[in-house]
Amino acid sequence: MPTSHRHSLLATTVLMALGSNASHAQTQVVKPPVAQYWMDVATVRMADMDELPNLGTMGGLAASMAGVKGMGDNSFGATKGMMPGRWLDIAVTTQRKPAGTTATQTIPPGLNLGASLTLLPPEPVASKPAAPQGQGTEDNVPEQPKGRILLYWGCGDTVRAGQPKVLDLANTKPEDYAKFMLGRATRERGATAAPGNAIWPNPQNKQLVPKGASLVGDHKVAGDGIPASLQFGIGQVQDFMPPLTLAATGGGAAAASLAWPAQPQARAYFLNAMGGSDGEMVLWSSAETPEPGWGLMDYLSTPNLDKWLADKTLLPTSQTQCAIPAGIFAKSKGAMVRGIAYGQELNLVYPPRPTDKKVPWAPDWAARVRVKSVATLPLDAAASGRAEPPAKPDVPDDSQSNKSLLPAVPGVPGLGNVLKGLFGR
Questions:
Q1: What is the mean pLDDT of residues 121-149?
Q2: C-alpha to C-alpha distance for 281 and 224, rounded to whole angstroms
Q3: What is the pTM for the complete model shown?
Q4: C-beta separation of 107 from 233 below 8 A
Q5: Tens digit of pLDDT for each residue in 402-417?
Q6: How far apart are CA 335 and CA 333, in angstroms?
Q7: Which of 172, 251, 339, 408 has the fewest Cβ atoms within 10 Å of its own Cβ atom?
Q8: Which of 266, 262, 220 shows the shortest CA–CA distance to 372?
Q9: Inside any domain, residue 251
């Protein structure tokens, strides 16, 4: 065989071997964890309130909200989103009990909730008959809502060139509205009352997290179908974050200067604001890109934090002040700014992935802990140098006359009714 042919055959053999090894390296058998655990940790500040009054339990909180139309004993989730304090949500599911299990989580003494928490399957939600569609014309076709949404973005004293971005509701489709309002968003699973999960809090265990509570220490979860190895430690990084204390000066016809103390646990910040009157809604966000930010007022994974920090959608931790451009909320009534400090999530898997690709990886469990601190501040009060809690919300009922024609936006419950009030629809 000629030398050149021998070299060619040898090169082909080597390449085939390398390709076989590369293919083999990518074929490690990986199985999903037997149990999946989630913990969501939130700190909420509302105007000048860091904590709730001493109501004892979520049942007491629900009772305190009973006078608000549309709220009742099942309003824990809705109430949590707007009430100040420390909030903890836990969920665990196991493949061994796909319909759900009961679990006990041993907790550190610093949480001040006893020695353990009881996790139970969520109560089934009774199905409701389909609600009639919104008020329509004689042909039963909903009327097109009227009004405009103005979107501004970026920190600065003056409105930048090319702004605002305008959405005319009379000449747009519902899907265009939803896209305009939502912007960036993620659909990442957390501690929810999904079927098959065991959750805390639950109707039998409604304790509010006490002021000053801490998650730091050892946590262990036990229950039917849950691997005995499901235990982990939480350090200061994943503990409850301090309240995000927003302060504002100026406003009205002048720029509103927002500032907040640095959060040691934060990885990024984000702000957005909303107000409106006379058929116009005004939106603003601290992003350097046209971003309303409703989908960003929630937990974000580390990859998304890194990506949106890089494109300047989020503010770096070195920045602790931001100005809302002058005049954009001068005519708005009830304008409100919201801020979020994103914490560092914790992801654990046990046992660790084998380095030998020939050994299958079948984890006993995986755990995810997410942390955030959020705050709201009325801009009307900020303009006068005060920070006063907003009035009790007027929650519309579910009657046909109050149904919005606009689609819901994830992360902004009731936004359609807010728009309805602004635009008279």
A1: 64
A2: 51
A3: 0.79
A4: no
A5: 344 444 544 444 555 5
A6: 6
A7: 408
A8: 266
A9: yes
136: left (phi over 0), alpha (psi -120 to 50) or beta: beta
Residue pair 37/91 in contact (Cβ under 8 Å)? The answer is yes
CB 174 within 8 A of CB 91: no
Classify residue 130: in a domain, yes or no. Answer: no
CA-based torsion, 165, 171, 173, 177: positive or negative:
positive
Say if CB 240 and CB 264 are below 8 A apart.
no
Cα separation of 294 and 62, whole Å?
26
Q: Are 349 and 30 in contact (CB under 8 A)?
A: no
SS (H, E, C) 253-321: CCCEEEECCCCCCCCEEEEEEEEEECCEEEEEECCCCCCCCHHHCCCCCHHHHHHHHHCCCCECCCCCE
CB-CB contact of 312 with 319 (8 Å) = no
Q: What is the CA 15 to chain-centroid distance, rounded?
A: 48
Element (H, E) at 70: none
Domain that holds residue 375: 35-122+143-423
Instruction: Supply 114's token pair.
Output: 């006893």
Kindly give, in sequence order, each residue whose CB lies less than 8 Å from that of residue 232, ignoring residues fewer than 6 positions away.
218, 219, 348, 367
* Number of domains the chain is built from: 1
What does the alpha-carbon distance between residue 43 and residue 50 come to, in Å, rounded to a whole number?
8
> Does residue 113 form part of some domain?
yes
- DSSP H or E stretch at residue 423: helix 415-423
- The span from the CA of 173 to the CA of 144, in Å, is 9
Q: Is position 73 within any domain? A: yes
Phi first, then psi: give them for residue 230, nearest 5 degrees: -75, 90
Tokens 């503990």 correspond to what residue?
A: 239
Beta strands in 140-203 (DSSP E): 148-153, 165-168, 198-200
Low-confidence winner among 76-85, 341-350, 402-411 (lowest mean pLDDT): 402-411
71 vs 137: CA distance, rounded Å: 31
